[in-house]
Amino acid sequence: MTPEIALLLAQDGITTGAIYVLVALGLVLIFLSTRVIFVPFGDIVGYAALTLAALQLKRTPGTVWLVLTLAAIAALMEIFALLRQRRFAHLPRALLYYAALPAAPAAIAWVAAGHDLPMWAAIMITFAVTLPISPLLYRIAFQPIADASVLVLLIIAVAVHFVISGMALIFFGPEGFRTEPVTRAFFKLGPMMVSGQSILVVASAAIFSLLLFLFFERTLNGKALRATAVNRIGARLVGIRLSTTAAIAFLLASALAAISGILIGPIATLYYDSGFLIGLKAFVGAIIGGLVSYPATVVGAIMVGLLESYASFWNSAMKEVIVFGSLIPILLWQSFFARGGVEEEIEEEEGERHT
Asked: Does the residue 355 lie in any domain?
């Protein structure tokens, strides 16, 4: 391997790792707030990329029908729950949050399909259509069993993944798509040429990571999420509604998934099930951070991107094995510093039930 090839592989690894950073941050954000290992996260990334591709091909994106289906189910569940509790005054707000707001961007996407849209308009529509998916999935699948064990929540997450992945096959078909790049510029950095799209991906990951940091440090909702992550029982006792913080976490994660899909679309050809693999690789980065540390998660995601890039050079057929095989030493290493974790989890769940 020459130094020039090593630099090119490093550039590719950092670009790919920047995508994994956004996905891994979303996974950690949801896990800390709700104890849900959100397996369908990568699928939402795939939905975002395929939605943008469909708009650029002047087709109606299948995400429209997914959002409308989820909105109908979530609205019916919320209305039924309010009627049982005789909270009739909250019905208009439920219809607004679970029906009107998710349906509005879906309707805009349906109207815009078939027209020659500028890049910025297609990106905005893609972002708006993808944004409600995670909160709706939370209301339908996870909120009713929010106090269940981590294992039960994981099983439900896997089931949700298979459902929306199968729906993606119905909506988009088995063929792969690649979106048009936001920029076709190239810049010379020392001995190598760097595409503007790669710079945009890395810059976006850095900017949104900074915005996420400021959200946690400077906003009331961010501090409520941090309190929930540190101590769920204590957060509940001081008046923080766990259902509200969970909904915010899923909304932020959905935004990160939408951005990731928009950014990765021009870099790789994506299929209906490609997002799952992206989510798994980002999960490896999150595991490096122990699913608790955001800075360590960022470092871990970049390391996964670099490992994948260099592994593909040595043996492209084995790169997935190398990436996922790296989990074994990581888990072994972390097991030495996680003694008593199972007991703490059991005590926390028992405390939540008593609360």
From this structure: no
Which residues fall within 8 angstroms of residue 151, CB to CB, at 6 or more apart?
none
User: How many folded domains does the chain comprise?
Assistant: 1
Burial pattern 235-263, b for ≥16 Cβ within 10 A else e, equals bbeeebebeebbbbbbebbbbbbbbbbbb
**Which pair of structure tokens corresponds to residue 253?**
């994660």
CATH number of residue 235's parent domain: 1.10.3470
Q: What is the pLDDT of residues 20-63, one digit of tens each?
A: 998 998 898 888 888 888 999 999 999 999 999 999 999 999 99
Q: How far apart are the first and last CA of the chain?
A: 60
How far is Cα 288 from Cα 99, in angstroms, rounded to an integer? 38
Task: Annotate 81-113 with b (16+ C-beta within 10 A) or e (fewer).
Answer: ebeeeeeeeeeeebeebbbeebbebbebbbebb
Whether the Cβ atoms of residue 311 and residue 284 lie closer than 8 Å to each other: no
pLDDT, residue 161, reads 93
Q: Which helix (H) or strand (E) holds 193?
A: strand 192-195
Owning domain of residue 121:
3-350
CA distance 178 to 203: 21
Task: Tell me, yes or no, whether 243 lies in a domain.
Answer: yes
Q: Give a yes or no: residue 181 inside a domain.
A: yes
Q: What is the dihedral of CA 250, 256, 260, 263, to 10 degrees?
A: 140
Q: What is the pLDDT of residue 131?
A: 94
- H/E element, 194: strand 192-195
Nearest to 220 by CA among 201, 198, 197, 239: 239
Alpha-carbon separation of residue 138 from 40, 83, 128, 167, 244 (angstroms): 11, 20, 18, 17, 11
**Residues 182, 198 contacting (CB under 8 angstroms):** no
Residue with tokens 């299929």: 271
**Is residue 177 helix, strand or coil?**
strand
Within 10 Å of residue 196's Cβ, how many Cβ atoms? 14
Residue 339 covered by a domain: yes
